[in-house]
């Protein structure tokens, strides 16, 4: 990996990128590192090694980064060529409020959201399946995510399909031959509806309120709406999905949190 100082030296040698401010460099690396799965998923299989940054960014991501930084896609391509190793190695840091608005203004039209939902692995996890290639058959659905720090967020929910064993992989479970298998452990996001996800921290907060504060599910829902939502940021008509948090969503998160976390849970799909 190029040290950060060497990367900055290369930027200074570029006729356009030399004028990019330090804040612009930080914004580029923060946004790009946040989109690693979105960068990797569209790549051809030979360029899908998760430990190596791909040489080329997908066009929607180039357009988003270019619009966010006021740069052409050619300059974004050059910036990626210089900073890709650094971006791929740094840990993902939380997005700022400005970043969320950049996603809303420039990302949503490109099919990108601040939160992207994927299965935990991009390869088939069936130990009896001979397929060891990254899964590229995918399905996308719009979703809403209830978070503790950023309120209601739009998201794209991506599921992957293995053509060999016919297993479909989702955020916190897989489906094969009519059986839904929940992965061991708790994911960061819990699916509580066809298009609804809850951050595990939020679900834990609701459970504590219900166990120790004698809250009902409806009151937990009302508390979230009154304290953790920004009506100016997320408008249902802009995303095509309601932001309404129902008592069923709260109860479903409670049930999933109560499942044993150290072993797989298998449920027959009806």
In short:
The protein is an alpha+beta fold and 270 residues long. It contains 10 helices and 9 strands.
Question: What would you say this structure looks like, in words?
Answer:
It is a single chain. The chain has ten helices and nine strands. It is an alpha+beta fold and 270 residues long. The protein folds into two domains: 1-112, no CATH class; 114-270, no CATH class. Strands 1, 2, 3, 4, 5, 6, 7, 8 and 9 form a nine-stranded mixed beta sheet that branches. The mean pLDDT is 89.
Strand-helix topology:
Elements: H1 4-13, H2 22-34, H3 36-40, H4 59-69, H5 73-89, H6 97-107, E1 115-117, E2 137-146, E3 152-162, E4 167-169, E5 173-176, E6 179-182, E7 189-191, E8 196-199, H7 200-212, H8 217-227, H9 236-239, H10 247-258, E9 265-268
Parallel strand pairs: 1-3, 2-8
Antiparallel strand pairs: 2-3, 3-4, 4-5, 5-6, 6-9, 7-8
**Secondary structure tally: strands:** 9
Shape: globular
Please bin the fraction of helical residues. Answer: 25-40%
- Structural class category: alpha+beta
For the biggest sheet, the summary is: 9 strands, mixed
**How far apart, in Å, are the first and last alpha carbons?**
49 Å
Keywords:
alpha+beta, 2 domains, 9-stranded mixed β-sheet, 9 strands, 17% strand
């Amino acid at each position: 990996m190029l040290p950060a100082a060497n990367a900055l030296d290369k930027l200074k040698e570029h006729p356009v990128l030399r004028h990019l401010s330090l804040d612009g460099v930080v914004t580029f690396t923060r946004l790009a590192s946040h989109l690693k799965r979105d960068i990797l998923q569209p790549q051809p299989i030979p360029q899908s090694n998760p430990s190596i940054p791909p040489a080329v960014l997908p066009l929607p991501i180039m357009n988003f980064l270019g619009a966010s930084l006021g740069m052409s896609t050619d300059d974004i391509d050059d910036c990626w060529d210089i900073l890709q190793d650094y971006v791929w190695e740094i840990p993902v840091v939380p997005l700022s409020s400005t970043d969320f608005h950049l996603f809303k203004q420039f990302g949503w039209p490109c099919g990108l959201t601040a939160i992207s939902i994927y299965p935990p692995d991009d390869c088939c996890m069936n130990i009896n399946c001979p397929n060891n290639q990254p899964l590229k058959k995918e399905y996308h659905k719009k979703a809403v995510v209830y978070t503790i720090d950023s309120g209601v967020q739009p998201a794209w929910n991506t599921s992957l399909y293995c053509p060999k064993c016919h297993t479909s992989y989702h955020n916190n479970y897989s489906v094969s031959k009519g059986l839904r298998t929940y992965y061991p452990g708790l994911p960061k996001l819990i699916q509580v509806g066809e298009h609804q996800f809850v951050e595990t921290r939020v679900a834990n907060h609701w459970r504590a309120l219900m166990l120790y504060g004698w809250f009902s599910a409806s009151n937990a829902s009302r508390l979230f709406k009154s304290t953790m939502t920004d009506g100016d940021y997320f408008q249902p008509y802009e995303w095509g999905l309601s932001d309404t948090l129902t008592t069923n969503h709260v109860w479903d998160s409670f049930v999933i949190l109560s499942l044993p976390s150290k072993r797989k849970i298998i449920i027959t799909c009806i």
